[in-house]
Amino acid sequence: MLAWRDKAVTLALAGETVVLLGQRALYWPARERLVIADLHLGKGHVFRRSGIAVPRGATEDDLQRLGSLVAMTGAGSLWIVGDVLHGPASGVGWRDSWMRWRRAHATLRVAALVGNHDRALSRADLHIEALGEAAADGPFVFQHMPDRDTEGRHVIAGHVHPQARVPGVPRSWPVFWLRPGLSVLPAFSAFTGGYDVRGLGDGQLIACVDDEAIPIYSPERTRFMRT
Fold first, then answer.
1. Minimum mean pLDDT among 101-110, 153-162, 187-196: which range?
2. End-to-end C-alpha distance for the chain, whole angstroms
3. Phi-psi region of 125 (alpha: psi -120 to 50; beta: other; left: phi over 0)
4. pTM, whole model, 2 decimals?
5. Which of 49, 81, 158, 191 is 20 to 30 Å from 148 at the Cα level?
6. Which helix H or strand E contains 70, and what residues bound it?
7. What gap in Å lies between CA 11 and CA 18, rounded to an integer?
8. 61 Rama class: left (phi>0) / alpha (psi -120 to 50) / beta
């Protein structure tokens, strides 16, 4: 097993092996595809334009993490499951950062599903392939909104920014929320809020704690667990 998988969780979804990474990404080995949700490029710019003082550099930090994941996994493609943007994409500083990142990963296929914040994405010219509102591949449907697929495929979605507290570790952490027929990815952007999904019915939670994926809750055992 590759060393980078030591702190990841490898499991089967709909009969396919996937790797859940503590850096808030899913890797699908059969497709050599990295999958993230809720990148929210430009969110800091929107806040500052509204008069809210927030630190600069969040986009650069997120892109550095993303570049490290691409290099670590050797992914040939990156799919973003909605909310690539968080506001306008022209006349903003973060766009230069993205374009530098894109040039540095020119051979990487980057594609995105449309999210509720992506109104400007189609005309932004960010060298991202448009996949529409949903895209089926193998046993999966990739889409932004966490709705189950009526044709029985396993949905991989975003939007919720799921979080949960980890026993013995301060504060809440981003989590993968795995439910029958539906997996919700954590928000990739570090500059996002989150929604506590504990106690919201069936499913398993796998937390992203300091770049390590940690299973913390399984309804089959009805208790917290650590592996």
1. 187-196
2. 17
3. left
4. 0.88
5. 191
6. helix 58-73
7. 6
8. alpha
